[in-house]
Write a structure and sequence with these properties.
The protein is 46% helix and 10% strand. It contains 31 helices and 18 strands. The N and C termini lie far apart (58 Å).
């Protein structure tokens, strides 16, 4: 009798079902190769590695053993219709229990949703199960069905779990015989559950990767891939980077240019620190991307790193970083998109047919968001954890580290990053123009602090401080501004009188919400009669926010870059109205800046976009507040940080202030004003140490909102409606992320072929302005927008 692992896909009815023996053999071959590679970076002893290898082998062999139940086989063979009637995970968990292998049981339990369990909830569940059925199962046996284990439950639910256990126990000998006949004997090894959640997540990542690769290869009717890592040519990429730097324009008269050159030389030829953890306090405009990349390429050569991962808080930083790296370190004859891969926002999908849209971080250089990276470290979900194995042995560049995480997440994140560095051979550099040294502050991260070496040499710090005093001036507008007041201020002759005749006169205006940003951009554009100008290159007012899809943000950034080189705008003032997405890590250079009050670190970051390259005699950055009316909206999340800004204003305008000390002090003050955040930080650490994976995953949400993908392109919507396969990059580039309650209020339509993955259509209901306001263009044009309490976009 042929035993089946996966039934014939409906879209390819002519192929034979996926044999169980083939699935296990494929997953085993891929998974063990992947595991060997992972363990090559670990600091475990040889005996520990052997125990893990035996456990992992048994886990892969038995993870689907419940499918061998005859009731399930009838469905898989196509003899009956419907879902699998017997939970196919329970049998593998039972086999793990007989071997007293706790790790194996947790991995098998976790390889399907809802993923890795929580210790305390499993304990409570088993206690209740025993109480309802007069049994004595082990407190952490993980027995029973994987669903409906949490929350309020009645006796019938516990009885159904008991019935599932009873059936498994009755048929376990039969499953075992079928397993041996089909796939051979597995290692019989006992193993306690590790106390470290990171290794459990990494091993689950390996299991899920092997399982999914086999299933995907079968469903797409292609050969099973082999896992291999052929090296990433770090030495050649370093030579390419040096060549790229040498090709850049030379301006030895410019102090900023000389500072960047000296910093790059230090990273390229200077001391390699023995510490795998380091920081970079170089100010904005110092060429951090290429300099830190030079340092990390050298560390990657030293450690034979698996890949380089660049993490940024905003997707527009990713666009610019990717563009630079593709020019600088991609070798001849290589495909730049395969070497430097960008991953913008959450693109996790629920079924095998949609997994093609999920980026797995397998390129030599991966550029991804802080949300994606850090929420993956915290995850319990198998689909999200699938890519975690790519992190082991990586060199990691955390760009604009001050803006990547809420303060309450710093303690647990430092714990994970220390684990990756200490136990999995990761090189990590924290970088920011307004560095917060949270890793060396017991108030922020607890007792396990560490002083990190700084890539920015002391002699360059002294030079840069003198340069900063000349480059920019800070000013505050005390009176809160209405929309008309703000538009008047932005265009005021008193403000512009020193800049109209300066090099490339331009003005940056940053608002705290997408909605305010669009309202100000539209009002300013009307003041300049911009709506008659159809082309982006002609507009006096440009707009940039997440109201625009990534492909359209790229066009705006390209136009901004064009204007900041020699162009027809060299002597004509123009404006960029944006959200915080441009305040950090983006190579922008304006004469004047206006920043709605937010936080100390945000203000300091925006200062790096004003007179960035020192081509003017000076620049000015204004702090301002708004009146919440006429479409302008306050962001409630910035109330406390704005108060701290007020407290520290006098320190900010001192001539010799340390930006690192100032930024760290501001964060400490903000943290102390939120007792709830202090408690949240402690709770996360407590849940992690107790292996309560579900709780950690639920709490650790960097963007505390329930968002979904909304497609803004007509052709793409039509393709998705028809079920035509589309690459995940295309989904990213043609979509925006919206809060679910906004989607409901706006009555957007689910795309029928993507309903399980919560992908919606914008163009079915509203216009999309690809050249200016994005989705906000469609909303501001509706008659009732300002009459409706839409809240914050």
């Amino acid at each position: 009798m042929n035993l089946i692992a996966h039934s014939t896909p409906s879209e390819t009815p002519d192929i034979q079902p996926h044999l169980y023996s083939d699935h296990i053999a494929e997953a085993l071959k891929y998974g063990l190769s992947l595991l060997s590679y992972l363990l090559s970076f670990s600091h475990l002893s040889q005996s520990e590695k052997e125990q893990i290898k035996s456990t992992f082998t048994a886990t892969i062999m038995l993870h689907d053993m419940g499918k061998l139940d005859e009731k399930n086989q009838r469905i898989l063979r196509g003899e009956e219709k419907g879902r699998l009637p017997v939970d196919h995970i329970e049998a593998g968990v039972a086999a793990a229990a007989t071997m007293k292998n706790e790790l194996m049981g947790w991995l098998i339990r976790g390889h399907h949703a809802p993923g890795l369990p929580s210790w305390k909830e499993e304990k409570y569940f088993i206690q209740q199960l025993n109480r309802e059925n007069n049994k004595n199962y082990s407190a952490f046996s993980l027995r029973g069905r994987r669903h409906k284990r949490l929350g309020r439950q009645n006796k019938d639910v516990y009885f159904n779990h008991y019935k599932a256990i009873e059936r498994t126990d009755s048929y376990l000998a039969e499953y075992t015989d079928r397993q041996k006949q089909s796939c051979g004997q597995w290692p019989s090894v006992s193993m306690a559950l590790p106390s470290d959640g990171t290794i459990i997540r990494l091993l689950l990542s390996g299991l899920v990767a092997a399982d999914h690769e086999s299933a995907a290869a079968y469903s797409r009717h292609r050969p099973m891939p082999l896992f291999f890592h052929d090296g990433s040519e770090w030495d050649k990429r370093l030579r390419a980077l040096n060549k790229y730097i040498e090709s850049l324009p030379v301006d030895k008269e410019n102090e900023r240019y000389n500072l960047r050159q000296a910093f790059y030389h230090s990273c390229q030829k200077g001391k390699l620190f023995s510490s795998r953890l380091a920081m970079c306090s170089a100010p904005v405009g110092s060429g951090k991307t290429t300099s830190i990349m030079a340092y990390l390429l050298r560390k990657s050569i030293e450690s034979n790193a698996s890949r380089i991962i660049v993490i940024a808080p905003f997707s527009n930083i990713i666009d610019q970083t990717v563009e630079t790296l593709r020019k600088a370190i991609v070798l001849d004859l290589e495909n730049p998109e395969e070497v430097v891969a960008a991953h913008h926002h959450k693109a996790e999908f629920s079924n095998e047919a949609m997994r093609q849209y999920s980026a797995l971080w397998q390129a030599p250089i991966v550029v991804t968001t802080a949300v994606q990276f850090f929420e993956t470290l915290a995850s319990s979900n198998p689909s999200k954890l699938r890519k975690l194995n790519s992190v082991a042995g990586a060199s990691i560049f955390i760009d604009e580290s001050h803006a990547c995480l809420p303060v309450e997440f710093l303690k647990i994140t430092w714990h994970w990053l220390k684990k990756l560095s200490d136990d999995w051979n990761c090189n990590i550099v924290f970088s920011s123009g307004s560095t917060v040294e949270f890793w060396n502050d017991t108030y922020l991260v607890g007792d396990h602090t560490q002083a990190l070496p700084d890539l920015f040499p002391e002699e360059l710090k002294l030079k840069s401080q003198k340069n900063e005093q000349v480059r920019i001036e800070f000013r505050k507008i005390d009176k809160a501004l209405s929309l008309s007041d703000l538009i008047s201020q932005i265009q005021s002759e008193n403000i512009w009188q020193n800049y109209c005749e300066s090099a490339r006169p331009s003005c940056l205006v940053i608002l705290n919400t997408v909605q305010s940003c669009a309202v100000v951009a539209e009002a300013l554009a009307r003041a300049h009669d911009d709506f008659e100008k159809k082309g982006i290159t002609q507009k006096t007012v440009l707009h940039l926010s997440t109201a625009l899809a990534p492909k359209d943000r790229s066009k705006i950034l390209h136009e901004i870059g064009r204007r900041q080189r020699k162009s027809e705008w060299d002597n004509t003032p123009w404006y960029l109205v944006a959200t915080s997405c441009v305040e950090a890590g983006v190579d922008l250079d304006f004469s004047i800046g206006f920043r709605e009050r937010c936080s100390v670190t945000s203000f300091l970051q925006v200062s790096g976009r004003i007179n960035r390259h020192g081509i003017r005699s000076g620049g000015v950055l204004y702090d301002f507040k708004i009146i919440s009316e006429d479409g302008l909206t306050h962001h409630p999340g910035f109330k406390e940080s704005s108060a701290v800004f007020d407290d520290l204003w006098q320190n900010m305008i001192l001539p010799d202030v340390s930006l690192t000390d100032l930024s760290t002090a501001a964060l400490r003050k903000e943290f102390s004003r939120y007792p709830g955040k202090v408690k949240a930080a402690e709770k996360l650490m407590k849940e992690e140490k107790k292996l309560n994976f579900q709780q950690v995953s639920d709490i650790y949400k960097i963007i505390n909102s329930d968002t979904a993908t909304v497609i803004v392109d007509q052709d793409l919507v039509e393709k998705l409606k028809l079920g035509i396969p589309v690459g995940w990059q295309t989904i990213q580039n043609n979509s925006v992320q919206l809060w679910s309650h906004r989607i409901k209020e706006l009555r957007l339509n689910l795309i029928n072929k993507c309903s399980k993955d919560h992908i919606y259509s914008w163009i079915d209901s509203y216009e999309y302005d690809s050249k200016f306001l994005g989705i906000m263009g469609g909303l501001l044009n509706t008659d009732n927008f300002f009459k409706t309490e839409y809240g914050i976009f």
